[in-house]
Structures are given as C-alpha cells and as structure tokens.
Amino acid sequence: MIGALPLPAPLETADVQRALLACVAVGAFAPTIGAFLVQKRLSLIGDGVGHVAFAGVGLGLLVDVWPVWTALAFAVGGAVGLELLRAKRRVAGDLALALFFYAGIALGVVFAAKAGDLDLETLPYLFGDPLRMSTGGLAAVLVVGAIVAVAIWSLRRVLFAVVSDEGWARVEGLPVDTLGVGLAALTAAVIVSGMKVVGLLLMAALMVLPVASAQLLARSFRQTVWLAALIGASSAFVGVIVGQVLHLSISGSIVLVAAAVFAVVSMARRTLPAAVKSAA
Amino acid sequence: MAEPRVAVDVPLLSAQGIFAGYGREPVIEDVSLEIRPGEFVALVGPNGSGKSTLLHVLLGSIEPSAGSVRLFGESPDRFHARWRLGFVPQRPTLESEVPATVREIVSSGRLRQRGWWRRQSDADRTAIEHAISSVGLSEVADGPLNELSVGQQQRAFIARAFASEPDLLVLDEPIAGIDRASQRRFRESLVHLQREHGAGVLLVSHELSAVADVIDRVIVLKRRVLFDGSPAELASSGVSLGIHEDDLPLWLEGLR
User: Fold this and answer.
1) Do B111 and A161 touch (CB under 8 A)?
2) Which of A44, A67, B123, B137 has the most beta carbons within 10 angstroms of its beta carbon?
3) What radius of gyration, in Å, describes the C-alpha atoms of chain A?
C-alpha cells in the first residue's frame, strides 16, 4: 500500500485518496465514450450493459470466481450481442435494450440468491464502494481509463463519422460493424471498471449526464467530448468531498452533483441563451 | 488538373435487367441504365415508383432478385474504392442533439480516401476547405450545424460528399424543401464538380427546375424505365423541366 499524501481533511487518509483518484478517473473517461454513444442515440446502452454485467456478478458469486471477470465476460458478450442485433436490424434499439435490462437483472438475482449472497455482498457491485478500493483495483481503473483515452483519441474521426450517420458510412465503405462492436466492447469494459467505484447502475449515469450538460454549452463535437470529461471529473471531485463531509454515499453524491450541473446548465441556457452563446 | 481516373469507355455505374422488391411483388422490374463519366443524369418518378429501392440496389445496400449492377466495372460487394462514390442521403439533418460543426461533418467525407486510420494531411485539409467553400459555407464552417437553415445543412452534407473528390456523385432528393438561394448554390457546386473533375452525377429528385439546363439525360421510372433520353426528347413529348416549374411533378403524378 502506498502511504497517504499530506492533503487537508476530508482527504487525509489513503482510503479517501484512492477513492478520489478512482472516482475522478472514472468521471473523466466514462463521458468521453458516452459522447459517442449519445451521438449514436444509444444513451441507454450503458444501463443495459450494467444490468447484464450484474448477471455476471451473480454467476461469479455462485461458482466462486472473482466477480469482476464474470461481469466483464457477460458485459462484453451482452454489449457486442446487442450491437450485432441492432446493426442487423433484427430488433428495434430500445426493445433490444429492454430485453437485456430485464433478462440480465433477473439472471443476476437468480444466481446471487442461489449462491446465498443476495444481500450486502451484492450491493457494492450495484452502487459502488469506492472507500474499500484496493491499490490493485485503482490500478485496474487507471489502466482501463488509459486504454479508453488512447482508443478514442486515435479513432475519434472515424468513430464520429460512423456514429453520426451510419447509413451514409456504410455506403462509403467505412468499417461500421467493426467499429460498432469495438465501441460496444469498450463500453462494457468501462462499465465494469467503474463497478467497484460508483457501481454498475450509477456508472451508466456518469456516462451520459456530463454529456447532456456539455452538449448544451459546446459548439462542436470535439468541445463536447472535452467538456463532458471535464464536467464528469469535476462532478466526481466535488461528489467525493460532499460525500465525505456530509457522511453521504460517495457514488450517490457524484451522480447527484452531475445531475445538479445539468439542471443548472439547462436553466441558465434557457434564461440566458444569448449570454451563453456569446461566451462560447 | 489530375488525370482522369476512369477510362471513358467504362461506365461509372451500370445496371442490367434489375428486379428487386421486398415481398413477392417486385418494386422494380427489368431496369437497365448506365452513367458515364461527365454525365449528369436525373432519375425521376412518382411517389412509390421504386426510385429509392433502385438507388439502394445501385449502391449495393439491397441485393437485387435478378440482374446485375456494376460500380466502376465491379460488383458492389467487390468495389472497395468507395471514396470514388460520393453519396448524399435523403435525411438532411443530424438526429442527435450533440453539436457538430460543418467542418467536422465535411471532414468525415475524406476518411475513406486517405485511409481512416491515417492522420489528416495538408492535402486532406485543402480538399475539405475546398469542399466547404464550393457550397458557400466557409463563413459558418466552425459553427454548429444545427444552428443553420435546412438548405445550409443540406449543403454541408453535399460538401461531405465532395470532400473525397468523387468520380460519381449520387444524391437522393437533395433539393426537397430548400430555399431558392441554396438551390442556386447547389446547382453551381454540382456543375463545378462535373466540369472540374469530370465526375458523373446521378440526381434523384422531384424538382429539377434548378438544374434543368445542365441535365444531360432524364430517366423516368415507374416500376420500369418509362423514358431514358435527353431533356429535349422529353420536351418533344410535351413535358418541360424548367419553363414551368410544376410541369414535371404534375406530369409524374399523372403517371401513377
């Protein structure tokens, strides 16, 4: 374990510092990928993948395998399967998501109950528990974050082209299906990496809420991505401190801060549209 | 100016005896057509005449039940130089609320040509600038698309198709509901692409008055090809493309 850095309260302990770093990292990279999902009109896919990952958690508890691995396998399988069904137009997007939501969560409950763990054991996976994050867990979060950042940065133009206008991209011969599957797999990895930080269910919120705020302020797609990462990271920072000072759930506080940012931005945008525009 | 990339005797696009449909009843029957380099062809027909089905067959996104299609001499699934084909789809706006600038949209059109994994080169940037200025959007290039008029948005999507400097441009109903000024700009940019690059143009539209004087051939489709010839020949059968702008749509509706 690395010793604690000399930071003021409430950040003085190593536990809180690890939690802060993990939350800020997840807060930055989740909305980065989220911006592409929103542009693809799949803002709810994170939620669907989170529910499917819970089935993996349940199976891991049942067969006594580290639940992160089983959650990752389920999440990647579910996200890629969903993308293939959607691209082949076999199922309408939102109906396919609904199917995954319900089948995933039900399967998770069945597995976890069978394992006798449907109690406090499962809650941290759903709603996060950043204060009990190990150094190894933190390292895993940072590695996934770095992979997402590199992948998004190097593919940004073609990903933008494909998520903005899929029909056109197909005619142009861009690798629509490959990129769709890649984006789905990356989404699954991001959701699972945030599982022990803010939880499977709140991770999806962190992917989308900062993007919703950023798109109201930004003037380009590029700005939207950067601003969403900034808003996500700041919401996480403020959320950790608010949670510690007021003795509230950290993951809940982070998402509430992100929601409050959206409320303030959209109200300001409505009342002062001219000012926001000229400032941008 | 660049050397022509296509031998003049190979059609950019050809279709032989195409049958296609979704159920038992074919939507199009025995359609044959050809577009050669530098040719400006308009495809017209009443609503439900199979124009859109035919277009998808020609672009390779629908498999015909009979007949064959050749893009630049190759079957659509083997045609990999896709950047040589510029496509302007019917839907003129981005569906998402996320802002995107004209330049971001137009840059997408250049990806296939340079290899989407490569960095943007100076030549790419020049081509993108040129495409934006040819549709008259230079002044709003860095502003969000969703703050522009429908006509300006449509021009941005045309510029996206121009950015790859295509040899064949296919446009699906690009002028429906856009303002006069945008229509004029639209005409100028098509003529520019056709004359400067020797590109072929296939325009699917109801409204041809804006481009009537530059059309080489008109193909009238109603399940089958009813007419394939010059505007002058069509005029001799009593239908004009330009003088009264309602002539063509009215006549087409009469065919239903």
Assistant:
1) yes
2) A67
3) 19
The ipTM, to two decimals, is 0.86
Selected residues 197-236 of chain B with any CB under 8 Å from a CB in chain A: none
- Residue ranges of chain A whose CB lies within 8 Å of a chain B CB: 35, 38-41, 154, 157-158, 160-161, 164-165, 167-175, 211, 215, 218-224
CB contact under 8 Å between B98 and A224, yes or no, is: yes
CB B109 within 8 A of CB B159: yes
User: Which chain A residues are closer than 8 Å to B84 by Cβ?
Assistant: none
Q: Which residues lie closer than 8 Å to B251 by C-beta, 6 or more apart?
A: B239
Report the SS3 class of residue B165: coil
Asked if residues A48 and A97 have their Cβ atoms less than 8 Å apart, the reply is yes
- What pLDDT was estimated at residue B179? 74
Q: Kindly determine whether residue A172 and residue B100, on different chains, have CB atoms separated by under 8 Å.
A: no
CB within 8 Å: A172 and B109: yes
- Looking at this protein, which amino acid is placed at residue B66? A
**Cβ proximity of A226 and B98 under 8 Å:** no
Determine, for residues A172 and B89 on separate chains, whether the beta-carbon distance falls below 8 Å.
no
Q: In what order do the strands lie in the sheet with B13-20?
A: B28-35, B13-20, B66-71
- The strand pairing partners of B219, in sequence order, are B43, B228
Nearest-CA distance B65 → chain A (Å): 20
Nearest CA-CA partner of A221 in A143, A272, A162, A150? A162
How many alpha carbons lie under 13 Å from residue B221 in its C-beta half-sphere? Answer: 28
Cross-chain residue pair A164–B100, CB shorter than 8 Å: yes
Q: Distance from B3 to chain A by nearest Cα, in Å? A: 23
By C-alpha distance, the chain B residue nearest A218 is B99
Along the 280 residues of chain A, how does pLDDT read in single tens digits? 456 788 888 888 999 999 999 999 999 999 999 999 999 888 888 888 999 999 999 999 999 888 899 999 999 999 998 888 877 766 666 777 788 888 999 999 999 888 887 777 788 888 898 998 889 889 999 999 999 999 999 999 999 999 999 889 988 889 999 999 999 999 999 999 999 899 998 999 999 999 999 999 999 999 999 999 999 999 999 999 999 999 999 999 999 999 999 999 999 988 875 555 555 4
Of B99, B116, B142, Cβ closest to residue A174:
B116
Residue A132 near residue B82, CB atoms below 8 Å: no
Question: CA–CA separation, B50 vs B43, rounded Å?
Answer: 11
What is the rounded distance in angstroms from the CA atom of residue A93 to the CA atom of residue A95?
Answer: 6
Instruction: Calculate the CA A219 to chain-centre distance.
Output: 24
Which among B24, B63, B33 has a CA at the least distance from the CA of B225? Answer: B33
